[in-house]
Amino acid sequence: MRDDMQQDFDTLVPGTGSGSRRTALQLMLGAGYAAAAAPVLAQAAIRTPAEGLVAGTVHIEAQDFQVPAYRAAPAGRTGLPVVLVVQEIFGVHDYIADVCRRLAHAGYLAIAPELYARHGDPRQYTETARLMSELVAKVPDAQVLSDLDATVRWADVNGGSLDKVGITGFCWGGRIAWLYAAHGPVKAGVAWYGRLVGTSGSLTPNHPIDVAAQLKAPVLGLYGGADSGIPQETVEQMKAALAKGSAAAQGSQFVVYPDAPHAFHADYRPSFRKEAAEDGWRRLLDWFKRHGVA
Fold first, then answer.
1. What does CATH list as the number for 3-290?
2. Whole-model pTM above 0.70?
3. Which of 84, 126, 155, 290 could cross-link to 167 by cystine, CB 3.0-4.6 Å?
4. Any idea where the domains of the chain sit in the sequence?
């Protein structure tokens, strides 16, 4: 089981019996969440309205494949700043779509491509371990980065501005946000508790620490001090690697919330920490504005 996937698995809270598991699963499916994400609903998840927005599914041509994506943007506007939103391991479920709508209300064209789409549908999995081993583990980083490139091109001809592109991602997507900041045409990135180190393989040849010095855009890392799967020593290692790198690398920053666990922004999970999530969101908006995305 890959380390970055394990983080989403570790934040899940098992049900106390088959009945409670079935009930939680039904709640999750009814809310548009991946089946494997159940049972995690600790409270009513945040629901951001779509009034005043153009929001819904679009398809992006990427290497002869139509990648589905959730897009939200202010209605009737063009030349918009663009934010790529990168999913958790559970795919582009309601939480990720809601993040897109929040960004759209802040004036962005926000788009979250289904980066597993070539390999399967995460909504069909009822067990997180199987989701990880049978689907997520088969998704190559090279394909993910290429699909994000295609997403930027789509945004350029669908109301977005190539001069103002940023990226944010959560856990699995947080790692990708770091990688894309070293690869793609973005002005800034925000990585929410993405793993920084890991074992390299044919599908995952590099991890954020391996590309830290080559960042093309500064990244704001938002991490939890109580995250049992991302040791603080790895944050310190990343800081040291950034300090020896490019101007964008040296301009990157970390904010660590001492008492926050992994997935503290995920409002549908027991790991949600309102104060840290809201502070991180304010910092995200400020970071994008400061670095020319807004």
1. 3.40.50.1820
2. yes
3. 84
4. 3-290
